[in-house]
Amino acid sequence: MARKISIKKYAGVYFTESKVRRWRERPDKVYWVKFKDSSGKIRWERCGWASEGWTPEAAQRRRFELLEQDRTGSYKPKRKRRRERITFGEIAQKYIDWARQSKKSWKDDELRYKRHLEPVLSKDPLKSVSPLKIERLKRDLYKKGLSDSTVKHCLVLVRQIFNKARAWGLYDGPNPIRQVKLPSPNNKRTRFLTFEEADDLLEELKRRSKQVYDQALLSLHCGLRFGEIASLKWGDLDFRNGIIHVRDPKAGESRQAFMTEEVREMFLDRMPEDVHPGDLVFPGRGGVRQKSVSKAFFRAIDKLGFNKGVEDTREKVVFHTLRHTFASWLAIQGTPLFTIKELMGHKSLAMTERYAHLIPDHKRDAVKELANKFSIVRKRSKIAPQKLVLDKVVN
Predict the structure, then answer these.
(1) Quick one: pLDDT at residue 6?
(2) Of the candidates 78, 93, 122, which is a domain's last residue?
(3) Do residues 239 and 267 touch, judged by C-beta distance below 8 A?
(4) pLDDT at 193 over 60
(5) Please, which pLDDT band fits residue 393 given cuts at 50, 70 and 90?
(6) How would you write 288-317 as a 3-class SS string?
(7) Which has the closest alpha carbon to 16: 172, 175, 174, 178?
(8) Enclosing domain of residue 392
(9) What is the pLDDT of residue 382?
(10) Do residue 234 and residue 335 come from a single domain?
(11) Following DSSP, what letter does each residue of 252-268 receive, concatenated?
(12) Which whole number is the average pLDDT over 165-183?
């Protein structure tokens, strides 16, 4: 709890400042009064927020009222505040209700809470959830055999629930996650397709599903995520300039992708005669946005045997492998990392550096070239004196 600060002008009146609430461009204040009752016990009573109209003068009047109630025997201490009794489960449910309206991934949050957090934390008051309890939760999640990535997602969900409780004014303590080290999962994919494998995959998809073939072609040629492909509308395509406007991508910002000639022809072939800018380019059943990759894609992968005997999930070929392949091909042909970053829509260059090892080693070539030039100069300097001696002998 925040430290109570005495207001010297008003005896027995204190205030604390909120870390999340604002009032008139400053931290909101909550006023408290302190007094000793007839039994000699120190009593603290909370008055209210400055934003609710409370002032030091009003708090002092309240203190006088409480002292008078104690003198006449009518004083009844406040029961423990509701905010101090509120449980993690109650806040978690409020968070999930909020996420249902505000987050696309709310179902993931709800599932993680139900499976991993509710059995352990739901009945605990927020103030009793300590860093030690979170460490024990982390240990137990690993005992279940969960991956680093899943454990991290669960702990991040705990952090988000506490942050929302603070933002909603239902909790004013520290976030226990701040003292817990989150796992650092290594989920970087290294597998990408060769040109021959990509060609085999497209041919297999063409036999199975025209739509999945077109989606795979688009990801291989332009590096789009499946979610971006599923959200693509005809109004996002600029055929005159060969630009695809990628709206609301995972990175949180819009970006541009560029049509290859094959992608442009694919779009024109798909375009209906009565096209509307707001229509989806790749509608799912019933004309709504696709939520997941078609099973035809995975059947094609199985038929080609790309994942046969592969245990490491990072090495398995999935739809996202096509986007990874796009970036890998760019790196192999010597495209600068910053250009790859922009084309991929990465937030930071660090995300793109996983492709650095594929870029031709121009630094090594530059050093070799420098050494070769220096070697030539040295050879000339050794030949020149001999040539002078020969000239003198001849003359």
Answers:
(1) 94
(2) 78
(3) yes
(4) yes
(5) very low
(6) CCCCCCCHHHHHHHHHHCCCCCCCCHHHCC
(7) 172
(8) 362-395
(9) 61
(10) yes
(11) SS-EEEE--HHHHHHHH
(12) 87
